[in-house]
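[step 3/7] fold_predict: job queued, chain A
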Amino acid sequence: KPCDNAHYQYNLPDNWEWTTLGNIGKWQSGGTPDRKNKSYYNGEIPWLRIADLQDDYITEATEFITQEGLNNSSTKFNPIGSVALAMYGSIGKVGILTFPSTTNQAICVCSNYIIAQKYLFYYLISQRDNFFMQAGGGVQANISKQIIVKHPIPIPPYAEQKRIVAKIEELFVTIDKIKESLEA
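[step 4/7] structure written:
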């Protein structure tokens, strides 16, 4: 769904559209089962924390909750392929789920998105500083789901999204080769 806000910083090519992150998928944050109730933890359900987001695919969880913990908290399941974004502390850290998982409340997850997964992933990484500048809070800076869903995103045609992702990944390979040559 295009967005007609005039406050965006630059004009887009004719076949691109501005919209908001909230218009490109379903966003939801998680929750933390009561830590005092030991029966909520060490179960079979993956439960992600910010430390699990490393700007890459998430291939394992470091903590697990029980069905009882899921039922008695605000955490929710997120499907494989969902893109997770840290809202507290390490604002803007990102990960792509390779397994269904729940998260704590410091993570907002996008599923059912209508754009290329890696385009969304790299765009979120590119916006880390912008998210951080919008952060509030005292001891630990944070952003809210409301800030995320209102955040603008330029949407090129799908084929162009794929070309952008391919170019980014090509450049990362080049950077890795340069790093290796410098370390040799």
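[step 5/7] annotate
The two ends are 50 Å apart (CA to CA).
The CA atoms of residues 3 and 19 lie 5 Å apart.
exit 0
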